[in-house]
Structures are given as structure tokens and as C-alpha cells.
Design brief:
- The complex is a heterodimer of chains A (about 500) and B (about 190).
- Among the domains of chain A are: about 180 residues, no CATH class; about 150 residues, Response regulator (Rossmann fold, 3-Layer(aba) Sandwich).
- Chain A has 21 helices and 5 strands.
- In chain A, strand 1, helix 17 and strand 2 form a beta-alpha-beta unit.
- Chain A is elongated and about 80 Å long.
- With about 190 residues, chain B is of the alpha+beta class.
- Chain B is built from 6 helices and 4 strands, in the order αααββααβαβ.
- A 4-stranded antiparallel β-sheet of chain B has the order 2-1-3-4, with helices on one face.
- Chain B is extended and about 75 Å long.
- At the A-B interface, helix 1, helix 2, helix 4, helix 6 and helix 7 of A face helix 1, helix 3, helix 4, helix 5 and helix 6 of B.
Chain lengths: ~500, ~190
């Protein structure tokens, strides 16, 4: 019974950790910065077009008088809109103020304020001109809401440039934007919203006969008022319309599952890009087609986005200073550059006192099955665990998450170059590093340097041996000898199951 | 750790965990609301529709009360409005909305297109809305042209079948248009 309760507790804790990692793991703001810029550009265009007919669309005697809009209210509310309170003689002034705020939002100036303003502006225009809305406004709405929740001006923005400029003037180190939990939260909300949107878009199509008999795509392209490309040749090749119709429904209804699979994601997103570019080019809905692609960027990691931007020379790599030395090092961005530096003050997040009852362990393992098994056993053994698939991800995590001990799993000495290089740097830094245990599953080499705080294990050790080694490595990190004794006592207790390294 | 490195200047402050609880609760409510919004559009079960009061005002507030019915249940015919406005000097001006030639750029044309499409959207539902929509259109068109009276006609542009095109007919063949008079309006009535 006790074991069952422990298992249940561990499962609940694993679920909480998984939720925390999914929604709140700190994330760099690069991707969100790009989303902000592209959303802002579309907002500028959308609202510039509203400006062509302010009085017609928002006036009391225009296309949509107040009585008409209020009669259409749902749940007794028309939603928020400051246009209800603006006098006609001030329409142009208010409109141009809104345009200025949207421009500031786009370039990332006073972003915390202008992001909220962008959301209010978007919703105000859309809810006041209710009958002239379509999908573009819906996408603008949710993007601005989620961007208002996050520090979307921390990267690729005037705010970031200004902060770097001020830091240089004061002689302070210049650092890359800080990953934050709110960035991850906003990114995940965009992703989840997109999944729900496509799901209901697909499900709603099932109510229509044309999406079953394959004629829906033909009906869309044969609409003269939408048509921007002559696709009437489809009439002579109906199978094309049928195929595109069925593919559209299938893709929309499976998007919310397939996009989370790394192997399927590129295909799913590529189909979406084709769909929306097709909507833009063939139905004249360029604004809708393009804004639908902006949320797709949320599935690109900040690291990849950063690399792409550097590659296309949209940005220059930020020079990172070693916070330990407070001296500038050569320009680096990720792990491949760091391992070629003879000595570096690695910017680990500062650790406070080691909690021997819940040591923080970071597991690096590229085998997902093995990683899952190890994670469960390590959590049961009392470690507070995080994971990374490789050294590069570990480096990113270490910059912002304090860790007491690293557990690095390598297959053999020939394929573990990154791990071996990383350990060399760990050993150079002495007391400023977390402890480490390297496990070479299939290799055996005595070239790796040992110390009491940095242990190597070879040839598929039992889990008990692994657990004991981690605890012994931590002994060198305790503040008092009493705590070290407690760890040694725990290392001597035999309770954990053995670990099958070949079939975890 | 017995010998901690000095805190890096750019190291983020360690954030607590307590704030994650209310945020997580909001996230769960938000996702629930996003699901109920489109799911409660008829036909929907009474159980789902009973959840609407819990999320409806919130969805209205954050402008997320949408069904995401893009070209659903299926692409339909276009609704246009043609008009003939009589000016004070007795001359008449004819036109149609939306009008791709005069409403530029495309987004501006599309805004007007959505106005006329909303007439079709209110063929069913609250019977007060469609007359109000039409009246507002008549008033705005009179203002734009300085007209003393205007006659509006709803033109439904039916969608041609593939066989129609294979028979050599065009997408804007007059047979594809169905007209419905919407009424005559005098400027003095506004």
C-alpha cells in the first residue's frame, strides 16, 4: 500500500513537472520577437485600411450604427471598444494615435505598454465594426492578446537595443535576452489556440455536403467575388478539387495531433503554408492567408530562429561576456563556439545552498526511452530532475537554472566528444561548477580526468551504482561535513531497482 | 554548493512557484472557454450549451467568441447589393457593393464584401437585424452620393457547377444572379 501511494505520488509529481515544463520552462524571446514584428506589420496594414472609411465603418450614421451593433450583442455585451466613446470630430486624431501605438508595438518600443494597447486597439476596431469582420480580425485578436502577456519586446526591438546601448555606456556586461516563463506561456497559448482553431475549422466542415463530395474547393475558387486567379480549368479535372477538398479536412482535423510530433511537424506546417498561400493567391485573401502563417512561427525554437536570423544577416550575434570574469570573450553563441575556447567563465546560473533532501540533477541523454526510465528512477531516489537531449540544450539550461549535479549519458568514447569537451571545461572551473557523473555505456577509457566531484562510470553500471556515484559527487558540494555524512549514508542504502541499459 | 560562484550579473532572478498556480488555473479556464465557444454553436448538446454562461462574457471580453467556421459548413453563394440612387437634380447613380474597381485595396473591398455577406448571415435568426442592416446601407449610400432616395436590390451570385463551366458558360453569367428587392428609401426618412 505504501509503495502504491509512493507510485501515485510520483506520477502526480511527474504530471506537475510535465505541466510546469510545458507551460513555464523559461524560453528565449527571439521567436516571439519575430511574431511581434510580423503581427505588428499586419496590424498596421489592417488599421490603415480601416482609416480609409472611419466615418463609414465607425460613425453613428454609417454602415453599422450603434443600435444595429448593440442589437447583435451576445451575452449582453458587444465587447470592449473605445470607439463607443469617441466623438466624430476626433475620429482621425484617435485613429492616428492608434496607428502610432501600433508602430511603436511593431518596432518594440515601450513594448509592455504598447503590446497591451495593440490588443485593445485590435479588439476595439473589430467589435465596433462587427459586420465587416472576418478571419483576419480573429487571428489579429488572439495574437495581440498573447503577445500582451509576454515580454515580446525583449528581443528584436527598440527596447532591447536601448537596453544594450545603456549597458555599454555604463560599462556593464551586455547579455542576451533573458529566457522567461511568460515567453513560453505565450508561445504555448499561440500553439494551443492554433490547434483548437484548426480542429473546429475541420469539424465545422463536416456539416457541409460539399466537403464530403469533394466539391468544396471548386465552390471556393468558382466564387467570382473571391476569385483572384482563374482556376476554372478545375472543371475539367474534378479529381483535383476532390483531392484538395478531402486533404483540407483531413489536415485540419489532424493538425492538433500531428503538429506535436517532431517527425510530422514539418509536413503538417508545410501543408498549412501551401493552403494559406493558396487562399491568398487564388481567393484574394492575402491578409488572412499571411496572418495565419504567423502563429506557425511559434513552433520554431528561439535557438533555431536566432540562427536563421544570424544566417540571413538580419541580426548580429550578441557578444556574451563571462559573468564570472566580467571580461569580454570572443563572440560566441552556442556550445560549438564555447568548446574551442581555452578557458572561459561559463555563465552558470548562481546556485544557492545545496538542499541535500532534494538535490537538483540535470540529465543529458539522447535516448528518449532510456531517459524516461532514468528520470522515473532518479525522481524516486529523491532528485529534482531536469533533462536535456544534448550538450547544447544543457548549456542553455545551465545559464538560467541552477543545478547541483549533472548526469551525462554517452554511448562510447568515440561518440561522446561533446560530453568529453564539456567535462574538460567543468574541470577547469573548479568549485564554480556543478558536480558531474559521466556514464559511458559501451566504452572504457581512462583518459577522462577524475576528481571526487566529477566521476566516470563505464560499461552499463547498475542504477544503484549510478545513484551512489551521484551522491558521492555531491558530497564535495555540501556546506558542512554533517551534510556530507548524510549523503554518504544515503549512498550506502541499497533500495533502488537495477537498471536494464539495453531495454529500458 | 560550498563554494558558489558569484551571482552572474545577467542571471535571471530565481522565480518562485506560487504564481504558477493561479496562472495555471487561468490557462485551464481559458482553454476550456476556447473549446466551449465554437462547440456551443448549434447544433450543440444542451450540456455544452449550458457551459456558455460560464465562458461567454469572458470570450466576448477577449474577443474570442468565434466559431472558426471558415468556408463552413460549405462555401456558399456571394451576396451583393446593387443600388440606384437618385440625386437632388434628378439624375441617377447606379452601383454595386462590393465593388472591386472602386474599393481599393483588396482588404477595403473585402470589408464591404463582409457587410453584404452579413445580410445573408441574418436571413435566419433575429428578424430585427436584417432590416436594420439594409436601412444602414441605404443611409450610408445616400450620404456617399448625396442622394435624396435610393433603391436597393440584393443580388445573390450563385455558384456554378463544374458542368456549367464545361458547357462553356462563364462565372458571371446573368443566369447565376438572383435578385431580391430590398426596398426604396428616402433620405428624409433617415
Amino acid at each position: 500500500m505504501g509503495r502504491l501511494l509512493i507510485t501515485i505520488r510520483n506520477r502526480i509529481w511527474s504530471a506537475i513537472c510535465a505541466w510546469d515544463e510545458f507551460w513555464f520552462k523559461p524560453m528565449a524571446p527571439t521567436t516571439l520577437g519575430v511574431i511581434r514584428i510580423l503581427s505588428g506589420l499586419m496590424l498596421l496594414y489592417t488599421h490603415a485600411v480601416w482609416g480609409l472609411g472611419l466615418d463609414a465603418f465607425f460613425g453613428a450614421n454609417g454602415w453599422q450604427d450603434p443600435l444595429l451593433i448593440r442589437s447583435q450583442a451576445v451575452s449582453g455585451s458587444t465587447g470592449i471598444s473605445f470607439w463607443w466613446y469617441v466623438q466624430p470630430e476626433y475620429y482621425q486624431l484617435v485613429h492616428w494615435c492608434c496607428m502610432a501605438l501600433l508602430l511603436m508595438f511593431t518596432i518594440g518600443m515601450m513594448t509592455r505598454v504598447t503590446a497591451c494597447a495593440a490588443f485593445i486597439i485590435t479588439v476595439s476596431y473589430a467589435t465596433r465594426a462587427l459586420n465587416a469582420n472576418f478571419g483576419l480580425d480573429q487571428i489579429n485578436g488572439f495574437l495581440t492578446l498573447y503577445l500582451a502577456l509576454a515580454p515580446c519586446g525583449d528581443a528584436l526591438s527598440f527596447d532591447a537595443w536601448w537596453a544594450r546601448r545603456q549597458a555599454r555606456r555604463k560599462g556593464l556586461p551586455v547579455s542576451e535576452p533573458i529566457p522567461r516563463a511568460s515567453t513560453r506561456l505565450a508561445t504555448r497559448l499561440i500553439q494551443v489556440h492554433l490547434c483548437l482553431l484548426y480542429f473546429f475549422a475541420g469539424v465545422s466542415k463536416l456539416k457541409g455536403e460539399a466537403w464530403w463530395n469533394g466539391d468544396a474547393v471548386w465552390m471556393a475558387v468558382a466564387n467570382k467575388e473571391y476569385q483572384s486567379q482563374d482556376l476554372t480549368w478545375l472543371a475539367w479535372h474534378p479529381w483535383v478539387s476532390h483531392l484538395l477538398t478531402h486533404m483540407t479536412v483531413l489536415w485540419e482535423m489532424t493538425f492538433f495531433i500531428a503538429v506535436w510530433n517532431r517527425a510530422w511537424r514539418p509536413l503538417v506546417l508545410a501543408i498549412g503554408i501551401g493552403v494559406h498561400l493558396g487562399i491568398g493567391s487564388c481567393l484574394g485573401l492575402w491578409t488572412f492567408g499571411l496572418i495565419m502563417l504567423v502563429p506557425y512561427l511559434s513552433f520554431i525554437s528561439p535557438e533555431t530562429m536566432y540562427s536563421v536570423l544570424v544566417w540571413v544577416r538580419a541580426i548580429r550575434p550578441v557578444q556574451v561576456l563571462s559573468p564570472v570574469e566580467a571580461n569580454p570573450v570572443e563572440t560566441v553563441s552556442w556550445w560549438p563556439q564555447y568548446k574551442h575556447i581555452k578557458f572561459t567563465g561559463w555563465p552558470f546560473a548562481a546556485c544557492d545552498r545545496l538542499d541535500i533532501n532534494a538535490p537538483r540533477l540535470h540529465l543529458v541523454c539522447d535516448d528518449s526511452n532510456l531517459c524516461g526510465g532514468l528520470l522515473t528512477d532518479l525522481t524516486s531516489a529523491g532528485f529534482h530532475c531536469q533533462t536535456s537531449p544534448d550538450i547544447a540544450d544543457l548549456c542553455t539550461a545551465l545559464e538560467h537554472h541552477p543545478v547541483d549535479v549533472l548526469l551525462l549519458i554517452a554511448h562510447d568514447e568515440d561518440t561522446s566528444d561533446d560530453i568529453i569537451d564539456f567535462r574538460r571545461i567543468l574541470l577547469q572551473m573548479g568549485a564554480a561548477t556543478p558536480a558531474s557523473v559521466v556514464v559511458l555505456l559501451d566504452g572504457e577509457t581512462h583518459d577522462l580526468r577524475h576528481s571526487n566531484a566529477h566521476i566516470c562510470l563505464y560499461r552499463q553500471p547498475l542504477f544503484e551504482q549510478l545513484r551512489r556515484s551521484v551522491l558521492l559527487a555531491l558530497c564535495e558540494r555540501t556546506a558542512t561535513e554533517e551534510e556530507a555524512d548524510q549523503l554518504r549514508q544515503r549512498a550506502g542504502v541499497v533500495t533502488a531497482p537495477s537498471l536494464n541499459w539495453t531495454n529500458p | 554548493m560550498s563554494d558558489s560562484a558569484p551571482p552572474p550579473e545577467d542571471s535571471p532572478p530565481r522565480s518562485g512557484w506560487w504564481w504558477k498556480i493561479p496562472v495555471s488555473l487561468w490557462v485551464m479556464y481559458h482553454i476550456f472557454a476556447m473549446f466551449i465557444g465554437p462547440a456551443s454553436i448549434p447544433p450543440a448538446s444542451p450540456t455544452v450549451q449550458s457551459c456558455w454562461p460560464v465562458v461567454g462574457p469572458y470570450l466576448q471580453l477577449v474577443y474570442m467568441n468565434h466559431g472558426y467556421h471558415f468556408f463552413a459548413p460549405q462555401p456558399g453563394p456571394s451576396t451583393l447589393v446593387s443600388y440606384e440612387a437618385t440625386l437632388s437634380d434628378g439624375t441617377t447613380v447606379s452601383g454595386q457593393i462590393p465593388d472591386l474597381k472602386h474599393q481599393v485595396p483588396r482588404l477595403y473591398y473585402h470589408r464591404h464584401f463582409m457587410l453584404t455577406e452579413s445580410i445573408a448571415g441574418h436571413d435566419s435568426g433575429d428578424p430585427r437585424i436584417k432590416p436594420m442592416l439594409v436601412r444602414a446601407m441605404a443611409r450610408q449610400l445616400c450620404r456617399e452620393h448625396g442622394a435624396t432616395s435610393i433603391v436597393l436590390t440584393r443580388r445573390t451570385h450563385l455558384l456554378p457547377s463544374m458542368q456549367w463551366c464545361r458547357a462553356g458558360k462563364t462565372l458571371d453569367d446573368p443566369e447565376l444572379y438572383e435578385d431580391e428587392p430590398l426596398g426604396r428609401f428616402e433620405w428624409a426618412d433617415f
